[in-house]
Amino acid sequence: MSFEMVAQTLEQAHQRIRSARTNHDGDLRTGIDLGTATCVITVVDAAGDPVWIDFDRTGAIRDGVVVDFAAAAAAVRKLKATAEDELGVELANAATAYPPCIGEADSRACRFVLEGAGFDEVILVDEVSAANKTLEVTDGVVIDVGGGSTGVGVFEAGNLAALDDRPGGGHHLDLILAGALGVTVAEAEESKRAGSGDYLAILRPGIERIGASIRDLTRGAEHLELHLAGGALMLPGADTTISKYLGRRVRAYPHALLITPLGIARYAS
């Protein structure tokens, strides 16, 4: 899919944040992104177009592992109830995603959270494949930079040729910024989310660490373009920092934090 088409889709998704689209056709599909910083619900129509998006800040997930089952289920239950009220329908089935290589037991825990929140049937998919459900990269590297880890998938001829992840993501950047500014991690995250490039110099070592993980996980695929998903690297200039560090072409998208949540919903039955 072209950059322009992806950007248009992501803008449409952005417009649906806590603003329901009522003129939808067919059955609705639901995706739950259990992130380190936020839990996101995305509802799409039969065509995969966004209908409703909402989020709740929760610390129940760490690096894709459920560390507080009750809190995670409560957050999902709250988001589910709000979406059902806004859309006037019951949401019975959903999909959720897990970081690559966290292990079968931990990935199943993500499904149990959704079942505990009232979903009947839950589909599991890795976060990188979910991101590419939105981007539709045929030949390239899809990088999902989450709160706790960086997932990397190499796609060749439309097939997932390699998949792995490394620790390090948005939460680690927040820690760097908090230490430099003498503020709390929560305050650092809010400053980073404000979208200012003022902190780029402070965060450069952390961003380059993410770049090093990308380099290590894409050996033999250096000729492929890099596609960034996730909110951790939405800081202005972060994509350029990665590009210069690796000497490779990097594609950044508007509203990149919605790429994976939208893709998760599109995987739902």
Automatic annotation (TrEMBL):
A Pfam family assignment: MreB_Mbl
Family matches, as SUPFAM superfamilies: Actin-like ATPase domain
Matching InterPro entries: ATPase_NBD (IPR043129), EutJ (IPR013366), FtsA/MreB (IPR050696), MreB_MamK-like (IPR056546)
Domain of life of the organism encoding this protein: Bacteria
Entry-linked Gene3D superfamilies: 3.30.420.40
PANTHER family, per the entry: CELL DIVISION PROTEIN FTSA-RELATED, ETHANOLAMINE UTILIZATION PROTEIN EUTJ
Name of protein: Ethanolamine utilization protein EutJ
Species assigned in the record: Rhodococcus jostii
